[in-house]
Design brief:
Immunoglobulin-like, 2 domains, single chain, 5-stranded antiparallel β-sheet, mainly beta
């Protein structure tokens, strides 16, 4: 764990003292960036944030299998009334529009919308490859994300599909009666190179100082080239719990930030809770 002093260089910018004794101008959590790419800083009106396809096995026969697909969509908040739709081409050849529901507001005046679709046992539909695009209807206009005209695809058990370098999957914290603390942050990222550095950059004093926590490899890459990294700490020796944090992912000489679209992630203070994307 590394605690570093941050000299604020403007709104959301910081000069961070790195671990090698030098000074590097970086994009700080919670704002615009210098020398780094802030995820969500230049998004289109509607964009896929993440999609997932998982095979859930409930018995010894294929007929017992359930394919669960989940979709997380980022949209610009152009008006209160809006429709966010997943245009699905199902494994059995049928097509349908699946309405998303509001998940939460994020930074840069954007919102996340979400929906799921199951295939197999419960819905008596065929499992297989799903093709899809996004449609966003707002203020009399329709915006489409169809992956450059190719549509997106998900195989039966592909796992996570990302359209950006990294995205936090979930974070949670719990406090035991004996004072023990357990915290976990999980990050999904595109496997853009063998050597990579994934960090949770957090603060418990409104960014007067920061703590840098190194995440460790957990699994992957999956069929879509996405790996999973995580930071886990528990027990009586946990001395730092960030009030807010962002994710830093360095690969091939470039650093990418997932700072919740400029808003940072906020950990519940002094009580059990979780953040799930």
């Amino acid at each position: 764990m590394q605690r570093v002093i941050v000299a604020m260089c403007g709104i959301g910018l910081a000069c961070v003292i790195d671990g090698c004794g030098g000074e590097t101008s970086r994009g700080a959590p919670g704002g615009s960036t210098v020398g780094a790419t802030s995820l969500g800083a230049a998004l289109s009106t509607v964009e896929l944030a993440r999609a997932t396809s998982s095979l859930l096995i409930f018995g010894p026969h294929e007929a017992d299998d359930l394919q669960r697909t989940e979709y997380l969509v980022s949209v610009a908040n152009l008006a209160f009334d809006k429709q966010v739709i997943i245009q699905l081409h199902n494994p059995d050849g049928t097509s349908e529009d699946r309405s998303c529901y509001f998940e939460r507001s994020v930074g840069n005046n954007r919102e996340l919308w979400k929906t799921t679709r199951d295939y197999g046992t419960d819905s008596n539909t065929q499992v297989g490859t799903v093709s899809f695009s996004l449609k966003y209807v707002v203020a009399g206009n329709t915006y489409v994300d169809n992956n450059g005209g190719r549509n997106y695809t998900l195989g039966v058990n592909d796992g996570v599909l990302l359209t950006q370098p990294a995205l936090m999957s979930d974070a949670n914290i719990s406090y035991g009666r004996d004072g023990d603390v357990a915290e976990n942050v999980t990050v999904d990222l595109q496997n853009d190179g063998y050597v990579k550095h994934v960090q949770i950059v957090g603060s418990d004093d409104h960014w007067r100082t920061t703590v840098v926590l190194d995440a460790q490899y957990e699994s992957g890459p999956n069929a879509r080239g996405v790996g999973r990294w995580s930071f886990i700490a528990s027990g009586p020796d946990v001395t730092f719990v960030p009030d807010e944090f962002a994710i830093s992912y360095t690969v091939n000489g470039a650093t990418y930030w997932d700072n919740n679209f400029g808003m940072n992630y906020f950990m519940p203070a002094h009580h059990n809770g979780s953040i799930v994307n």
